[in-house]
Amino acid sequence: MSDSVARWRAADVASTFGLGEPVGEARFIARGAMGVLWRLNSASGSWAVKELFDPPEAEGLAPESRFVDAARDMGVASPPLVRAGDRLVVDMPTVDGAASPIRVYGWIDNVGSPKPPLPVERCREAGMLLGRLHRTGITVDREPDDWYMSRNVGGPWLERIDALEHRRPELVAMLRPVIDDLVSLDDLAAQAPRPPWMMCHRDFDPTNTLIDTNDRLVLVDWENAGSLTAEAELAYSLLGWCVDRHSEVVPAAVHSFLAGYADEGVVPAPRGLGSFSVALAARLNFLALMLARVVNDDVSREEQDRAERNAQEVIEGLPRAAMLRDTLDMWEQLL
Ligand SMILES: Nc1ncnc2c1ncn2[C@@H]1O[C@H](COP(=O)(O)OP(=O)(O)OP(=O)(O)O)[C@@H](O)[C@H]1O
Ligand SMILES: [Mg+2]
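^ thats the input. predicted complex w/ magnesium ion below
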């Protein structure tokens, strides 16, 4: 799929989502693991149009919708959701006769996402944002998806490595030295959180925030929202926000993040290293998915190469056990 021209028609999306007359064509902004983000201007404003690779699970959309509205009411800075009637996602026809699931958010004028290592003030602001988000406190009955509960994608790591052996030697050279780490992180990832569940963002990291033109953090990318625990989401966020360029945790950043959270809500208690299970399950499942994609000949070479880069990033940033313990100590001390 070319990234420069949208396959769907701007006029169709504008009329379906009630945006008024489109002004010009949609402009490509970013391609992620789950979709492509476009900017579309119209008579009534500017819009972030997300074209999803896979249709979302229908039963997740209503809770997500309520959650985003509740978060915005609570003062969590985030773009408005634009609905087509009561629908968040609509299959739009494409020029090649297929259809793409599309959703629309209000456009946020921004100067980019914050890039680690972040100033402690930014970590504090992120902590406040998360504390406020968790104050929504919407409980849910639904167990979190398997993705968050253990590393269940891809089978044994050795088999994944064998599949890569003759095709991606650089990747294999990165994987071999960390195989024992991967296996012990799998064990930690299996210490899944317990109910009660509440609505969480489930990907609260710097790449899913934007710094707006008032220098304020805005939370985007709500597609993963769903059930989890506050404690699991906090652990996930600490590893995303409070690290340096080498993915080492920065103590001052952890303190600031937790202090910011405490300003807005009650900091959930950790339950030992198992608190990091979701953070690990999500990373390891993503890694396993990318390793499989690298050798999947049903996807383009470009897609395989992108998967290799994603896998390398995860491997380079793999949390070390000592680092998890230090982070846990700081978290426990705050309580
Ligand atoms: N409402 C918005 N206004 C302006 N820019 C946005 C908006 N939403 C997203 N973006 C831009 O698009 C990028 C990608 O968006 P997003 O995080 O939603 O998708 P993704 O990361 O590509 O997908 P995924 O995380 O599902 O793989 C963001 O980093 C940001 O630069
Ligand atoms: Mg994202």
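The two ends are 50 Å apart (CA to CA).
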